Amino acid sequence: RKREIFKKNKIPIRGKSIAIYSTKGGVGKSTVAVNLAYSIKKIGFNTAVLDLDIHGPSVPRITGTQDYEPYSPDGKNISPAEKFGVKIMSIGYMAKGDTPVIWRGPMVMKAFRTLTFSTLWADTDVLVMDLPPGSGDVQLSLAQEADISGMVMITTPQELALEDLRRGISMFKKLSVPILGVIENMSYFTCDSCGKRHYIFGKGGGRDVAKSYGIDFIGEIPFDPDLMKMSDEGRIYVLEKDGEVSESF
Amino acid sequence: RKREIFKKNKIPIRGKSIAIYSTKGGVGKSTVAVNLAYSIKKIGFNTAVLDLDIHGPSVPRITGTQDYEPYSPDGKNISPAEKFGVKIMSIGYMAKGDTPVIWRGPMVMKAFRTLTFSTLWADTDVLVMDLPPGSGDVQLSLAQEADISGMVMITTPQELALEDLRRGISMFKKLSVPILGVIENMSYFTCDSCGKRHYIFGKGGGRDVAKSYGIDFIGEIPFDPDLMKMSDEGRIYVLEKDGEVSESF
Ligand SMILES: Nc1ncnc2c1ncn2[C@@H]1O[C@H](COP(=O)(O)OP(=O)(O)O)[C@@H](O)[C@H]1O
Ligand SMILES: Nc1ncnc2c1ncn2[C@@H]1O[C@H](COP(=O)(O)OP(=O)(O)O)[C@@H](O)[C@H]1O
Ligand SMILES: [Zn+2]
């Protein structure tokens, strides 16, 4: 098989691009992407978030920017939303409320290209990209067409998620995209009435898998119901609540 | 726009087919699909499970049938796995271990057709289909090409999942596929040391959305860490543990 050589296009940003990925859905990709971007902003970098979950865009709600109406200043490029200094782009701004995005592969690829290469990211130092679950059109187009700095893999500790983590790691190794590390999310839940720590999805799985593939284990993020509540309300957790979870971001 | 008339093909089963769906990943579709199928088997029907999550097949692990090697008795059809009397088919039997399934739309559609129409379901009364998250090729092909009895929508109670639930409901209404009802999963977690009930993903969201669309609310399934552990080990929860959660299945 002739190895297809794809021309990787540069994303119009000043600095680095990091894709937050997991083959499995519901492990916290969007939540981690948004809170990571604001944590990076807090230490002084210009950051932006790109929501590439075409069928299930959650970043508008998590950042409280659902009402943003994207516009084009020049008929070609798109102006991103902006909240507390972080630029944001998502298909969710074009398909509001309960409008489903029912697209097959070719349409999904067009949306990927427009959102990634035609958004006016300006002097963004770090672009955090929230990928959809699975290993289909968006993931392939990203690996083949975009010149990204690397992937961060998100997992929860249970074996069912680790099975998908292994699939994701071997996919991006095959596609020769650098993997920066693994983050384990929802590692444990602490009962607020008796203080017992519950490993509701098991314990230590993310660290073991990362080690077995020779990949950095970046860290654990505990389960905090406030993170879930504030995301539902469009409030940025790492900007409002200090403590163990914000530290881990 | 001419309304495309698709010829819906009959799935080669004796009885009904129910698709378990959620636009959002990680809400428990695979876990509910498997335990629902075994609950239906317990009351006397021949049941089968079809895992259509092409990129992240979890049903082989949940049922402990990862080692099954599918074969074709006639060069055209495929023999399903079988465990405790339930027939099972999944792409996971063809892509074992950490092998990622990196396919674009057209390949995904071929896999959907083969798994659905060429599996030897024999005298299956109820086929439970586990769908992937999102609203792309598999969901469209299922709605356009297969004559299914209806969809059951799975959600967790938080707004972020409810947003995707609304998208999913409006999608299948548009595609004129009957929606049988909504199940809310991971509704609450009970601390085993002090008995406090924690609504870790919020409360009552699934019932409200179902009501607002005029759809039946089928019920709530609490969060039980044993369900997570047993799924990881390939043990069927509703066959081994009695109690509130098995009752709700
Ligand atoms: N560490 C955490 N603690 C509590 N809730 C979390 C945590 N991480 C994610 N969540 C919640 O879990 C749900 C799934 O997260 P989400 O970011 O939507 O996952 P994904 O993008 O992988 O589908 C959301 O409701 C989110 O608020
Ligand atoms: N009611 C529940 N209680 C405890 N764990 C659950 C429950 N439902 C699902 N899980 C666990 O949550 C994770 C996600 O469920 P899964 O069935 O894989 O979701 P999906 O198919 O929607 O991605 C799995 O590890 C599963 O074992
Ligand atoms: Zn307690």
Gap from first CA to last CA of chain A: 42 Å
The structure class of chain A reads alpha/beta
Please give the domain count of chain A: 1
Series of H and E elements of chain A: EHEHEEHEHEHEEHEHHH
The CATH architecture classification of chain A is: 3-Layer(aba) Sandwich
How large is the count of helical segments of chain A? 9
* Largest sheet entry of chain A: 9 strands, mixed
DSSP helix fraction of chain A: 25-40%
Beta strand count of chain A: 9
CATH superfamily of chain A: P-loop containing nucleotide triphosphate hydrolases
What hetero molecules are in the model?
adenosine-5'-diphosphate, zinc ion
Summary, kept brief:
2 copies of one chain form a homodimer. The first copy, chain A, is α/β, with parallel strands linked by helices and 249 residues long.
Give a topology summary.
Two copies of one chain form a homodimer.
Chain A: E1 16-21, H1 29-42, E2 47-51, H2 59-62, E3 81-83, E4 86-90, H3 105-117, E5 126-130, H4 137-145, E6 150-155, H5 159-174, E7 179-190, E8 197-198, H6 205-212, E9 217-223, H7 225-232, H8 237-240, H9 244-248
Parallel strand pairs in A: 1-5, 1-6, 2-4, 2-5, 6-7, 7-9
Antiparallel strand pairs in A: 3-4, 7-8
The structure holds adenosine-5'-diphosphate (2 copies) and zinc ion.
Zinc ion (ZN) sits between chains A (191, 193-194, 196) and B (191, 193-194, 196).
